[in-house]
Amino acid sequence: MTVEEDLVPEVHVEDVPQEAFTVIGRVPEGATREEAIAHLRAAARAVRGRDIRMVRAAGLGHIGGEFSVIDILVTLYLDSLHMGPELLGDPDRDRFILSKGHAAAALYTTLAAAGFIDPDDLSTFMQPMSQLNGHPARTKIAAVEASTGPLGHGLPIAVGTAIAGKLDGSARRTFVVTGDGEMQEGSNWEALMTAGNHGLANLCVIVDRNRLQQGARVADTNDLEPLPDKLRAFGMEVIELDGHDHGALRDAFANVPAASGKPTAIVAHTMKGHPISFMSDNVAWHHKVPSAEQVEAALTELEQS
Amino acid sequence: MTATAEKKLHDCRDAWVETLVELGQADPRIVAVVNDSVGSSKLGPFQSEFPERLINVGIAEQDMVGVGAGLANGGKIPFVSAASCFLTARAMEQIKVDAAYSEHHMVLVGQSPGMAYGELGPTHHSIEDLAWLRAIPNLTVVVPSDPEETRQAVRWAAQHDGPVFIRVSRMGVPDVNPAGYEFAPGKAVTLREGSDVTLIATGTVVSRALDAAELLASRGVSARVLSMPTISPLDKDAILAAAAETKGIVTVEEALTSGLGGAVAELVVQHQPVPMRFVGVTGFAPTGEVGWLLDHFGISATGIAEAASEIVGA
Lengths: 305, 314
Fold this sequence. Notes:
The complex is a heterodimer of chains A (about 300) and B (about 325).
Chain A: H1 3-6, H2 33-58, H3 63-80, E1 95-98, H4 104-113, H5 154-168, E2 174-179, H6 186-197, E3 203-209, H7 218-221, H8 227-233, E4 237-242, H9 246-254, E5 264-269, H10 292-304
Helix pairs in contact in A: 2-3, 2-4, 2-10, 3-4, 3-9, 5-6
Chain B: H1 12-26, E1 30-34, H2 44-49, E2 54-56, H3 61-73, E3 77-83, H4 84-90, H5 92-101, E4 107-111, H6 129-134, E5 140-142, H7 147-159, E6 164-168, E7 189-192, E8 197-201, H8 206-218, E9 223-227, E10 230-232, H9 236-245, E11 249-256, H10 260-271, E12 276-281, H11 290-296, H12 301-312
Parallel strand pairs in B: 1-2, 1-3, 3-4, 4-6, 5-6, 8-9, 8-11, 11-12
Antiparallel strand pairs in B: 5-10, 7-9
């Protein structure tokens, strides 16, 4: 299949199960660690269920990399970020940038779960004149801090907003998620040098390390390893963790800014397509659109996850 | 031989940095972002006064423009300043996405554009920038012609809530705008009235168009001279009026003729077709200093007058 054929959408609104999706909201104040993790697990399950139905309905999307990053997004927006619909105009809000903008459906669904987007609007994903473009645009959605899509843009922007926060003496933090394949872009390493040299402790770079890019394993094109060592050499405080472990993620996010005064780089080991058995760690699911039967099977697996 | 040679010439970078320092004193949000280009951007005075507000990312143009966009997100007003050849060619996708598509209030300052680097050669010339940048939606492209216009364009960009590119001349230029001149974005400036032919010029070579008009007058040809400080958006009314009221248009630029020339032609051919000639750079330059190169490409009083004569048949 050529790229062109692959990107012609076949819209399947009619055969998508239309379960209700509502605002889930943040982890309640005063929740115990166990309660917080349970809240995030349930939210991530709901976000994945809505995401796969959106991609099926639109006939387009990047479901593999969406499922690898959803636990990171949900933990940030429903727990770790000092950011909510009431804080959109607050200069001291935490910033989040999804540099791997092709996972837009995961971002939109998470933003709906967090109350930034009307959940009913998710059904407009990629439809004519929708605000929910195939890649997130800051001019279309107030909660989107940076327009992304071409790879290697989000991290330099995050460095800029972190420098601005430092100049202002603000306590705000900037989080940015890159894909691991995306780290092949040289602009990211330019930005990491800047972050390290400026001692941007208010910056946290999360690499969604699912080991797969669009057409191959990252190791088989232009390998990143030893990635943690490289990040350390660029002046980062490096944390490696399971990117599907909500407890580990919230602990790591809570440690930003690092006591060392360095920017934090989290290598989040994830699985593309997680946790669906027939998608997980399978390069074919970068932007494959599931059949109606595959949606049903995935939703069943999600219920049991 | 030209009037230009007798006038005092200015490096517009001096006006640029004086203005940026004034803006910086008045507004703490003003910051500068550079790629090891403090010297070539003449930003020393800004760096001395506001060391923490001069962000030097080193030789990393993509990072530079992205950092600028992030500073805008963080509430700053960034002036991203670098040699125009590197700023535009190396960071084009960041200019498209991070500045223009994102509609950030940020100012991209292309220093020493055109063939200002003369003998250093086409790697360091920025002759493509006007054609490239006018193709990008949302981006205002300003090409000041003298120090006063540079000052006013920089001041305007600091308060305009959107992305702006300003091309700042290093090659010496005389004052061409009249006393009391006020820059208006998207508006042409009529520097000389005329009824036979119109010369539409931008930036560094507006003075050469004025010299050409003088030469044409000596031959009995009345040439209107429009200075076009904004390439995008264009002043359509002024251009179409010139097309209607004179026999044709000669565009004049220190850039590939697909810059100003292409922009004017796209408009004229649709709405008021008249004969046109394009004076500008037509290929990668041979070795030579900038004044010699301008003459080599016919971007001179005689070259411009010759193009105008083809239209009026004089």
